[in-house]
Design a protein that fits this description.
About 50% of the residues lie in helices and about 5% in strands. The chain has about 450 residues and is of the alpha/beta class. The strands form 2 sheets. The chain has a 4-stranded parallel β-sheet, sandwiched between helices. One of its GO terms (molecular function) is oxidoreductase activity.
Length: about 450
């Protein structure tokens, strides 16, 4: 029998998600597995400092009559599930019992299974269905005039109190702005002045931009910065012609059928571009992770899903690969000084290293202080009334590190994480996306 330490010395292995089997959605089978894994977690407790799922479990055990899992009411199990937002950090960085260890613990995918069971039982709140319908909300809130009304209402205390009461959105949560002039509208008709750049390593020298819901409706300037930076490096950029939400919000809800529908819409579009010689990039780490990890685990026998997995990149991963082969322009015009850089969880678990930091540190007279702590945002967790205060406790160590850095800029690859930090700072200084900073460093127009 292998020991926990022997298991911990091997690289974590993810098993495919058997989400279409009958047992996957069987509540009694689910609770048997929850009990098994929760008891292992209770005996270890290495993950106490990550999200609030683990303190919720451990506190319930410590406050029970037996001081063991058998003294915890089953309702608490669902509380633990609700606090997990599938950041994957416990699996990738903390747990010594992940596969190939014989105990076979995959806490995030167990939480995902529980969320899927809950959704299958019709217990998903209407609010949560709405918040995860990012395409629908973006289209409606992005209508001219409507976007202005929505943005104004989101800044009005009276309107926010009403939103808290009726929908369960916390009045102190920063809500994203909506733009009627989306990234797709801004980039419509855009045509690169360059032919494909020279191939470098796995990169083929021209990229198709998967805009993402957030990048299209909420922060289109990030996509514009990406286009400017890549084309400055003579890498042609085009938008993916048609796309839907990557499916990550619905995955976190447990609505796996909706994830499959999004996959069926997106994968053929991306395959067509890959076959035409385009690499794929997306500016939001969660969206890249969806295609790199979650869809391949949900559809392990789909060759097209695997092909997209092997041809999609984080923007800075792509740029650093170019740099390794001396194909990145390093003639920077403007130093950036000190940058406090929060590394998003969904970027860390991609196992590509700190490529954003590495690229930004190529800029002369620039120091990047990487903060490898969770922001606690998750896209929807931080805006929900029942979880917002907890999310602000999770981000507090990041906020403290940003304050201590006394940096010229603070940044995160995840725009939502950036605004979560902004909410904690309360300084009036907003976050700047790393692509925005790189555009400034190049001295490009519009920076």
């Amino acid at each position: 029998m292998s020991t926990p330490r022997e298991g911990s010395l091997e690289a974590p292995q993810r098993h495919p998600l058997d989400w279409k089997s009958e047992e996957f959605h069987d509540e009694s089978a689910l609770f048997s597995e929850l009990e098994r894994v929760f008891d292992i977690c209770h005996g270890c407790r290495r993950c106490f400092s990550l999200c609030n799922a683990f303190p919720t479990l451990f506190d319930a055990i410590d406050e029970s009559d037996t001081l063991e899992l058998d003294g915890v009411p089953k309702q608490v199990y669902w509380d633990v599930v609700d606090h997990c937002y599938l950041c994957d950090m416990c699996f990738m960085t903390k747990c010594p019992y992940v596969p190939p260890h014989e105990w076979n613990v995959d806490f995030p995918h167990l939480m995902l299974r529980a969320k899927a069971v809950k959704h299958k039982q019709g217990k998903t709140r209407p609010r949560d269905k709405l918040l995860t319908s990012t395409d629908l909300v973006g289209r409606l809130a992005g209508i001219p005039v409507v976007s202005g009304v929505v943005n104004k209402a989101n800044r009005m205390p009276a309107a926010r109190k009403l939103l808290d009461k009726t929908l369960g959105v916390h009045p102190d949560a920063l809500l994203p702005e909506y733009h009627s002039k989306t990234l797709r509208k801004r980039a419509k008709g855009h045509q690169s002045q360059h032919n494909a750049a020279e191939a470098a390593g796995p990169t083929r020298g021209k990229v198709a931009l998967f805009a993402t819901c957030y990048g299209n409706y909420n922060e289109p300037h990030v996509g514009e910065d990406l286009i400017a930076v890549f084309e400055h490096n003579r890498i042609p950029v085009r938008l993916v012609e048609k796309e839907q939400c990557c499916g990550m919000p619905k995955l976190e809800l447990g609505d796996l059928e909706a994830v499959e529908k999004a996959k069926d819409a997106n994968i053929p579009q991306l395959i067509k571009l890959i076959d035409e010689g385009w690499d794929i990039v997306a500016p939001v780490p969660s969206c890249v992770l969806m295609f790199k990890q979650e869809l391949p685990l949900m559809f392990p026998d789909d060759a097209d899903v695997a092909k997209v997995r092997d041809n999609i990149y984080d923007p800075f991963e792509y740029l650093y690969l170019r740099h390794k082969h001396d194909k990145l322009d390093t003639d920077f015009k403007q130093p950036l000084g000190r940058i406090a850089y929060q590394v998003p969880c969904h970027l860390r678990v991609q196992n590509i290293g700190l490529k954003t930091r590495d690229v930004l540190q190529l800029v002369p007279d620039t120091e990047v202080q990487a903060i490898e702590r969770c922001s606690g945002h998750d896209g929807t967790y931080a805006v929900k009334s029942e979880f917002h205060e907890t999310s602000m406790k999770i981000v507090k160590p990041v906020v403290n590190r940003v304050k201590q850095a006394e940096a010229d800029h603070y940044s995160s690859d995840c725009p939502m994480a950036g605004h979560q930090i902004e909410n904690g700072l309360q300084s009036g200084q907003g976050p700047e996306h790393p692509l925005t900073l790189l555009r400034k460093a190049y001295g490009l127009p519009g920076a």
